[in-house]
Amino acid sequence: MALLFHERSRTTISLHASHLIGRSERCDLRIDEQYVSTEHASIRWNGQVWHLKDLGSRNRTYVNGASVSATDPVVLNPGCTIAFGLKEDTWRLESLAAPEAVAIPLDGGAPLVAVNALLPVPSPVKPAATVYRGSDGGWKLDEEGETKDAIDGGVFSVDGRSFRLSLPSAVLPTVPVGSLETPRINDLELRFSVSADEEHVEIVATWRGQALRLGARTHNYLLLELARRRAADAGVRLPDTSCGWVYQDELCERLRVDAARLNVDVYRIRKQFAHLELLDPATVIERRARTKQLRLGVKRFAIEQV
After folding, report:
1. How many other C-beta atoms lie within 10 A of the C-beta of residue 180?
2. Is 52 exposed, middle or buried (0-12, 13-18, 19+ CB in 10 A)?
3. Calculated CA dihedral for residues 214, 219, 222, 224, nearest 10 degrees
4. Gap between the Cα atoms of 260 and 193, Å rounded
5. Which of 286, 92, 267 is nearest to 185 (CA)?
6. What's the pTM value of the predicted model, to 2 decimals?
7. Structure confidence by residue, pLDDT tens digits, 198-219
8. Are strands 50-54 and 74-75 parallel, antiparallel or unpaired?
9. How are strands ordered across the β-sheet holding 155-158?
10. How far apart are the C-alpha atoms of 92 and 7, rounded to whole Å?
């Protein structure tokens, strides 16, 4: 994420995809100084670069000491200095990395920031909702077994707290030329190695001959159950779009867990695949809108007894 360092206070903040600066309580960066306007300036990510725009402030905005026009946004460069109202009170742009998804608590708590395009809310320990990047590049909100499109600036509530979303543009991230073959979930093939008593389930993901070991985890059994359902449906020649879907309540009963525990395991599986640096790791488990159904998002897999 892009980082903004305040020279005077020696503090650093991370920039959201759309960051409002000023004295208002609505601002993401609140500067409680009389020379700063209520809504003074904004810094936005357009999918490729960061832009700064003065919002018609009384005392102007400065980049590298030069006044910024209120009509023309300025492209920001690494190491540039920014001042809001008082030219001597500077902030330095220390990084220009693309932003991650952020959930901003409306009760004033610290913002929650996604890691590898995966954001559990209110915490990784209790992921009552999850925001993630889908296979089309758009952001999704998985909440209480339902998945819907996540909207930049949208507000949702979990566990009695409300959060506002700040989301980067809905496109897949640009990758270096040498990494154009970065895989998606459906490029993988999974191999499940299951012990005779089914107490031990190990998963290996392969892609173009490269083995990516995911190890043995307790939540792997959930993925195994979803794989078995998808295999059974494919065996009776159901269309691929219909294969593998299972109702959440049925899955909870089969695994002897409640919905909260199931959500935790779904998040842990998605996090496990996020470490593989895929373009769409969270889609390893898909949810069907308005049905509380889910399925394994990988088409190619094998199950073997060991």
Report:
1. 7
2. buried
3. 30
4. 27
5. 286
6. 0.78
7. 889 999 999 888 888 888 899 9
8. antiparallel
9. 112-113, 102-105, 161-166, 155-158
10. 7
Q: Strand pairing partners for 194? A: 201, 305
Residue 200 structure tokens: 């031990």
The stretches of 107-258 forming alpha helices (DSSP H) are 220-235, 248-255
Are 297 and 284 contacting, i.e. CB atoms less than 8 angstroms apart?
A: yes
Rounded to an integer, what distance in angstroms lies between the CA atom of residue 233 and that of residue 221? 19
Give the tens place of pLDDT for each residue, 111-132.
Answer: 899 988 899 999 998 899 999 9
Closest to 52 measured CA to CA, from 80, 70, 74: 74
Distance CA 93, CA 78 (A): 6
pLDDT digits (tens, 9 = 90+) for 3-43: 999 999 999 998 999 999 999 988 999 999 999 999 999 99
Order the strands of the 285-288 sheet from edge to edge: 246-247, 293-296, 285-288
Taking the C-alpha atoms of residue 117 and residue 100, their distance in angstroms, rounded to an integer, is 7
H-helix or E-strand spanning residue 14: strand 11-14
Kindly state the DSSP code that residue 48 receives in the 8-state scheme: S
Alpha helices, H only, 88-175: none
Residue among 174, 162, 133, 125 at smallest CA distance from 150: 133
